[in-house]
Design a protein that fits this description.
With 350 residues, the protein is mostly helical. It contains 14 helices and 2 strands, in the order αααααααβαααβαααα. A two-stranded antiparallel sheet has the order 1-2. The chain starts with 14 loop residues before the first helix and ends with a helix. It is a multi-pass membrane protein.
């Protein structure tokens, strides 16, 4: 009499693996607060009808911050030259418009591809070296592109920029208006779609491996994770996202200037992530809202010294809210929940 032994997949997974899978699925689900957050752009459309241009700027800055958060917040690659990809996207749309190719969706697609290509090529310079060398490489790439845009005035317009960028109606139906209404809706839709893809990515095994690389890049190869390949991929994706943000700015403003490649734009972006909280996706979005609104209000109240007050706010955030807006809020919620649980246990009769 013979007995057969099954070597297939066990019908009951290991309890530890089942718990890990359950935690992963819970983290990937959309939370009620997330649905509430994405209702805010809709409410803003009706609540602030005279500020569509400002709202568009918030949406574009949010996408730009999201692109850096993928690179810095999740993979741990600090960058002071992320405006390079933003500028590439903006100038791509400007050049397309100057040649009669002003279709918005075509501009977004080409801006994403060209910026991603620049990111892919420059990513290999980041694979060897520490954080300081990576910082210098990213800054160097941005400075080179800035000088190239400044030098080739026949193509980029130099310091005069590229005014009157031609942008055709979206899908041939929705023309950009002077009030920025269509531009705002367009920017929010693009932001949401790319955020959805980014959220799927960071909650996937690929995203979890990025967190592991950020925490301990030396240990991940022992787990079979190709660290360099992961870094190249996420850097390329982040560059493509930044290119789309630059393209949106050029399309909604119908103007491209050297400012899109400036060091100031890269530095502001890093401050936005510090303000909102890096490594959370929503941190960059909240930081963008806070930064753009603070910039608008402070420059209106005190045009000469608004940067001083903005700097003071950032210093206070670093000193008293090191996790940024989102990180501090999460710590407060967790501590409140722990206190409530402790109080409930103490009140329960033994």
């Amino acid at each position: 009499m013979t007995t057969s032994t099954s070597i297939g997949t066990p019908s009951h997974p290991h309890p530890g693996a089942a718990d890990a899978l359950a935690r992963y699925r819970r983290s990937a689900r959309w939370k009620p607060l997330e649905y509430l957050f994405w209702c805010l752009p809709v409410l803003a459309y009706f609540a602030f009808p005279g500020n569509y241009l400002l709202l568009s700027q918030i949406a574009i800055t949010s996408l730009f911050a999201l692109s850096l958060d993928l690179i810095f917040g999740y993979a741990g690659i600090i960058s002071l030259g992320h405006a390079a990809f933003f500028g590439v996207g903006a100038y791509t749309v400007g050049l397309l418009g100057s040649h009669g190719l002003g279709d918005p969706l075509l501009g977004l697609a080409l801006a994403a591809m060209i910026a991603a290509a620049v990111g892919f090529l420059s990513s290999f310079l980041l694979l060897r070296g520490n954080d300081l060398s990576r910082l210098m490489v990213t800054l160097g790439v941005a400075l080179m592109l800035y000088e190239l845009a400044n030098k080739f005035t026949s193509i980029t317009g130099g310091v005069d920029g590229m005014p009157g960028v031609e942008v055709k109606p979206i899908l041939g139906m929705f023309s950009f208006d002077m009030y920025g209404r269509v531009g705002y809706v367009y920017s929010v839709i693009v932001l949401f779609v790319l955020f959805w893809f980014a959220r799927r990515m960071v909650h996937s095994p690929f995203g979890q491996s990025l967190r592991g690389i950020h925490m301990n890049a030396l240990r991940m190869p022992a787990l079979g994770v190709p660290v360099n390949r992961r870094l190249v991929i996420v850097y390329t994706i982040g560059a493509g996202y930044a290119g789309v943000a630059g393209a949106l700015l050029a399309q909604t403003n119908s103007f491209v200037s050297l400012d899109v490649l400036s060091f100031q734009r890269s530095a502001d972006l890093l401050l936005i992530l510090i303000l909102g909280g890096a490594g959370h996706l929503y941190g960059g979005l909240l930081g963008s809202i806070a930064f753009v609104v603070a910039h608008y209000l402070l420059s209106d109240m005190n045009p000469q010294y608004w940067q001083f007050w903005l700097g003071l706010i950032l210093v206070l955030v670093v000193l008293f809210a090191r996790g940024g807006i989102l990180g501090t809020a999460r710590k407060w919620i967790e501590s409140s929940r722990h206190r409530a649980e402790s109080r409930a246990r103490s009140e329960t009769p033994s």
